[in-house]
Design brief:
Blueprint (H helix, E strand, L loop, with lengths): L22 H6 L6 E13 L2 E12 L4 E9 L10 E8 L5 E4 L9 E5 L6 E4 L12 H15 L11 H18 L2 E14 L14 H4 L8 E7 L4 H6 L1 H13 L8 E9 L2 E8 L6 E11 L8 E10 L2 E9 L7 H14 L1 E3 L5 E3 L5 E7 L16 H6 L2 H7 L37 E7 L2 E8 L11 E12 L1 H22 L3 E4 L2 E7 L5 E9 L5 E5 L13 E4 L2 E4 L4 E8 L6 H10 L5 E9 L5 E9 L8 H4 L11 H9 L11 H11 L22 H9 L10 H13 L10 H5 L4 H8 L4 H19 L5 H12 L9 H16 L22
Parallel strand pairs: 8-9, 14-17, 22-29
Antiparallel strand pairs: 1-2, 2-3, 3-4, 5-6, 6-7, 8-20, 9-11, 10-11, 12-13, 13-14, 15-16, 17-18, 19-20, 21-23, 23-27, 24-26, 24-28, 25-27, 28-29
């Protein structure tokens, strides 16, 4: 069966999955009906060390007749829904719109810029192959964009109002960027760059010549050292003892640095006879987020690496720093070869993981290039001119080639005020008469906020035919003020939240905290709150169903209305009724016991359609009452229950100890005692019972009489007392004969049942036996019919959550009670061994 076929009658088609939408269809869903997506071009941006995939969409408005490119970031790939596309940038294709390819120092050759009068240039990169069948390639993209632009060149006015909705999203992101930019601060960082061609001399030659004149110059201790060596020994030795040789040089460097700070080797990279070592202060190494190395071999067949470059890339806080140590082609006339070596190193060194985005040398904030560059001083007929520093520099090949744009484009070199560093007779300060002196050893830099403090050579070190060179820099390192960033981000989130609220349907509820005060059993309390429409259109709302409650609220709470609509600038009142009655008191007591912190009667969720929910809290206090409490709880009281607080009542309910202050609840005894004294007025008293029926008008007076242990006369009638007695037995969460109800129903005789009843808690056992004697006496006096009271009390005392309330079950309950009412034996002993009196006071 093919996907997507419609079945008019629903046969079989109900289970067929809908066809997945294409990328083009999902992107089109982000736009209005009169806006058309012409093409999609896959492009990505580089943000810090990461690359972020994106979709550039060419869109037009049919009503306005104008075009734009809108940049999206997909939240996932492949897309599954249109809401997974987030707008990054909007580029209206105006007369000033530009799409230009950038080939200078790009991370890849596939780099281009988008710009308008208001935005840009914004850099994007494209893949060399399409990853989505619907995406066009770069040439198609450019051709289509400029075709659209040419259509508008002759138009006098261009209408881009349709972009306002999309710009707002982009503008908000730009606002965040501006805020984050304000959190950028620049901190001073001292960088010490040093280079030396050691002329294949061993690291330790017995003289133990100190390197401190080279590595410990300047007043301030550096934060980072970048030390480059060339020709560190003969190639054969290097191949045999590479690790040992590297360790010797690093050890010697570390022992000759500035005093007063702890330094550590952070990274070393070697290529044949070249080595670059990065040394940092120990306390700063934790701020280096990532480091990468690379190298490019030049020289003989560009393979053996006797020439070339080694480099280290550091991500230091929020800035990127690159160090390159190179050894370029030698000899006076090899200028072109040196230039080619430079270009080969610049193009070949890339930092990144295989297959992922990478960073080139020129993609760093700060670049330092040092080494034996081997550029010479061109020969002159005026030999004596070689003694004049300025005339030498005029013939310096490096400065000449840089001025022509043949090498080191964009780099800067500090003013040279020292003698040529090559070529000396080893062990002396005398030039080798066979070679023209030259400034072979150089330090250059590239980037912003870099200040060179010192640039010099070191004559005191005579081990090689080159003199060491060093340069000290102070850079302004870009870093983020974390505290300020957090504050700005929180402000932006609040503004976004406010903006989002204003754009959504919304109503105002007043108040959202509703205090019901002191709530009593079987007393209705009503509170109202007002809802007002503060939006520009009609707003619909309803109270949300809460799965944990199987409804919108607790059983004792009633809301009117549950849903409604509000016209613009209108308002209405919503009524919340709170009634703790026989049907809901167990739910309330359970909630009180389960609430460990502040107790609230309920929290209602007022849901605004297409808007945010409003939480309405119903709070207050419950006045404890005997109705709903277990026999054990009532036997733990030492004063009337009305004198207990809600928290004290909770503690008594949760108390599971077998200690009781009385053997039977006083409230139960008071009702039985009153009914016992009524004589013939009890006739036909227990005819029916339903906890869902409304209680009599005198019930609340009886409630107060029981909850206060009043010594006044009973305030009701025998019917009210019977009503209260049945509720007292029926409302506790657990029946009087639990936990043995099911076992009692299986008993074949009264004696067998008595063995289980003896295992009940003393309060339950005494209440049951006392009740049976009371009912037996009433039946013997013909005050009520045996079958009626056996059915009513049997159903209450033997109610069980485990059993189905069937006709057979009810019959068995009735038969069980008949046995105990007709043949009631002497009452069993109470919890303290005393007999329970029938018409007198309670034993304690």
């Amino acid at each position: 069966m093919e996907r997507g076929i419609n079945f008019p009658n629903g046969d079989d088609g109900a289970t067929a999955s809908a066809p997945e939408k294409t990328t083009m269809e999902l992107v089109q869903q982000r736009f209005k009906s009169d806006e058309r997506v012409h093409l999609i071009f896959e492009a990505y941006q580089i943000k810090g060390p990461e690359h972020v995939e994106g979709l550039l969409t060419l869109v037009s408005s049919l009503s306005c007749g104008t075009y734009a490119i809108i940049s999206f970031s997909p939240l996932r790939t492949p897309l599954r829904a249109s809401n997974e596309l987030k707008i990054d940038q909007v580029f209206p294709i105006t007369k000033s719109f530009q799409l230009t390819k950038d080939t200078k120092g790009s991370i890849t050759e596939q780099q281009f810029d988008l710009s308008t009068d208001d935005d840009g240039p914004i850099k994007y990169y494209y893949h060399t192959f399409k990853t989505d069948i619907e995406s066009v390639d770069y040439e198609q993209f450019v051709a289509e964009v400029y075709s659209c632009k040419s259509l508008m060149w002759t138009a006098e006015t261009l209408n881009f109002m349709w972009l306002d909705d999309y710009r707002e999203i982009g503008d908000r992101k730009q606002e965040l960027k501006k805020r984050l930019h304000q959190c950028i601060v620049y901190k001073d960082l001292i960088i010490y760059c040093a280079t030396w061609n050691v002329n294949n001399k061993p690291c330790w030659d017995g003289s133990n010549e100190s390197l401190r004149p080279w590595l410990a110059r300047g007043k301030n201790s550096p934060d980072i050292y970048a030390i480059g060596l060339q020709e560190i020994e003969k190639m054969s030795k290097v191949m045999l003892n590479a690790n040992q040789l590297q360790l010797q040089w690093v050890t010697r460097m570390l022992s000759n640095l500035h005093d007063g700070n702890e330094y550590e080797e952070y990274k070393t990279v070697r290529l044949s006879t070249m080595m670059l070592t990065i040394i940092v202060r120990k306390r700063l190494s934790k701020y280096i987020l990532r480091s990468r190395i690379n190298s490019v071999a030049r020289g003989v067949l560009n393979t053996f690496g006797n020439k070339g470059g080694v480099a280290v890339s550091l991500e230091f806080k929020d800035a990127s720093i690159c160090f390159i140590n190179s050894h370029l082609a030698a000899h006076m006339d090899y200028i072109v070869e040196r230039n080619e070596d430079y270009k080969g190193i610049e193009e070949g060194i890339k930092f990144g993981d295989d297959g992922g985005p990478y960073r080139t040398i020129n993609d760093h904030d700060h670049v330092f290039w040092l080494g034996d560059l081997n550029y010479r001083i061109s020969k002159s007929d005026q030999i004596s001119d070689c003694n004049i520093l300025d005339l030498r520099l005029q013939r310096d090949q490096l400065l000449d080639e840089m001025s022509k744009g043949n090498c080191f484009n964009g780099y800067t070199e500090g003013q040279i005020r020292f003698e040529p560093t090559y070529k000396y007779e080893p062990g002396s300060d005398r030039y080798d008469t066979q070679r023209e002196p030259a400034y072979c050893d150089r330090v250059l830099w590239k980037g912003r906020r870099i200040e060179q403090m010192t640039y010099n050579s070191v004559m005191e070190i005579r081990q090689s035919d080159h003199k060491p060179v060093y340069a000290i820099f102070k850079i302004k390192l870009k870093t983020c003020d974390e505290n300020k960033l957090k504050r700005e981000h929180e402000k932006w989130l609040k503004d976004e939240d406010k903006r989002e609220n204003e754009s959504q349907p919304q109503i105002v509820a007043d108040p959202i905290l509703i205090d019901f005060g002191l709530v009593r059993f079987n007393e209705l309390v009503i509170r109202d709150f007002k809802v007002s429409n503060k939006w520009v259109k009609q707003v619909d709302f309803l109270f949300k169903v809460q799965p944990s409650l199987n409804g919108i609220c607790e059983k004792y709470v009633h809301v009117d209305p549950r849903d409604a609509s509000l016209l613009v600038e209108s308002e209405r009142f919503i009524s919340i009724k709170l009634m703790i009655d026989p049907k809901s008191v167990s739910s309330l007591l359970k909630k009180i016991c389960d609430t460990k912190s502040k107790f609230d009667f309920d929290v209602l969720i007022l849901h605004v359609k297409d808007g945010r929910d409003i939480f309405i809290t119903a709070t207050g206090k419950y006045q404890p009452s005997c109705f709903g409490l277990s026999m054990e709880t009532m036997c733990r009281t030492d004063r009337p229950i009305s004198e207990y607080s809600q928290e004290e009542m909770r503690s008594m309910i949760l108390d599971v100890s077998p200690e009781y202050r009385v053997t039977m609840p006083r409230e139960f005894f008071l009702l039985i005692d009153y009914l016992h004294k009524q004589g013939d007025s009890l006739r036909d008293l227990f005819q029916s019972y339903d906890r869902r029926q409304l209680l009599s008008s005198q019930f609340n007076a009886v409630r107060d009489w029981l909850d206060t242990w009043s010594e006044e006369e009973f305030p009701g009638t025998p019917q009210t007392a019977a009503e209260a007695l049945l509720l007292l037995l029926d409302l506790p969460e657990q029946a009087v004969l639990e936990p043995f109800v099911d076992d009692l129903m299986m008993c074949k005789s009264k004696s067998e049942a008595m063995e289980l009843i003896a295992l009940l808690s003393p309060p339950k056992r005494n209440v049951f036996m006392h009740l049976c004697m009371f009912l037996r006496e009433g039946v013997e006096r013909n005050n009520y019919e045996l079958s009626n009271v056996a059915a009513i009390f049997g159903r209450i005392l033997l109610r069980s959550s485990k059993s189905n309330i069937t006709t057979d079950y009810q019959n068995r309950c009735t038969e069980f009670m008949r046995r105990f009412i007709i043949e009631t034996a002497d009452p069993v002993a109470g919890g303290n061994g005393q007999r329970v009196a029938t018409g007198a006071g309670l034993q304690t």
